[in-house]
Design goal:
431 residues, Rossmann fold, Alpha-Beta Plaits, 3 domains, four-stranded parallel beta sheet, 17 helices, 42% helix, elongated
Length: 431
Amino acid sequence: MTADAPPSAALKPAPAAAGGQAVITIDDVRQAAETIRGAVIETPAAASATLSAILGIDIALKFEIFQFTGAFKERGALNRLLALTEAERAAGVIAMSAGNHAQGVAYHARRLGIPATIVMPRGTPFTKIRGTEDLGANVVVEGASLVEAAAAAERLRAAGGLTFIHPYDDPLVIAGQGTVALEFLAQVPDLDRLVVPIGGGGLIAGMAVAAKTIKPEIEIVGVQTEAYPSMREVLAGRDFTPLRHTIAEGIAVKTPGTLTRQIVADLVDDIVLVDEAHLETAINNLIEIEKVVVEGAGAAGLAALLQHPERFRDGKKAGLVLCGGNIDSRALVACVSRQLERDGRLSRLRVIALDQPGSLAETSRIVAEAGANVLEVFHRRQFATVPVKYIEFDVVVETKDRQHTARLIDDLERQGIEVENITYLERPPRA
């Protein structure tokens, strides 16, 4: 199951658990929808005319970012919490999460009067840690990964007699996440394809069961990052070691669920991988075009279409799930800044001029006359590599686009100023 060799899209038998029973069925998903109705937002779905026109792919978006906690995870968390016995509620619950499951459990546990402890791995964005604490949970930061955080959570569970609320590998959680597909297909019945991020697999597993039952011909495409292709590698029988950190930390799961991988193997048609640059670009496209803020995992579906457009330009209508919007503020600022650089709207120019009064002022004048804006100046005298009669300084300029930057450089050179564009970021395709 790779992007190069997708399996058949035909509906396969219901995935079986170890005892020969299906992990979940459409009835479980429908029951979950009734169970959580009124306590979880039925999020809107809408066509994206602009993205569709730019990419040449008919696109509809499901805005799970509009949940109270900013992510779909509330659905599965609440469905599981409502199944607790009175004794389990009194003792409390524990979960491990990189953020969105944590906030989903914390929010609904507080609403239901259930004590909640959340173990979060080191490196979890501060915004998610703070958000979880603000929702009343006791947050324990431990472990370098979700696997290590899970081990810490198990120790605390055993010591305190708590009930563990798994982020993805639980039938009630999977069924809760599947309600996204029930809503999406009711809102946009003519969807031909669902493009869904994969971390542990709870969202895509639940959605696949629901969607393939309602509409057997629909194609389910999972998206993982190149840094964390865990589900794809596990299903291919290959060992997996994370390559690096990713901005899509919400789907940076080293070990996908045992239950979820059964469903994915049976019902998911393809898994494609995306790189960090396209994730960053997708985040920016959704800000600029759709006017919404998403985290890396939430942008994964659009990143797949940006990076593999020919894979999706087959006339099928694609439904993308914007599954989470809890991006760290610093990461968001960096994404926006880097995209400005990729688009040529923010450039760093290295200028070499005679070391005499007015050199910097002359450069600034030319920049202003070209309709550009100077944001920063880095003036080096002690460590410059130019002859002593010259000065070297860097100017960060804001322009309309890459062509505008090129015209500005031409204007500077026509005035006898030696200039070089030293903005060294790759420029991936962009919507």
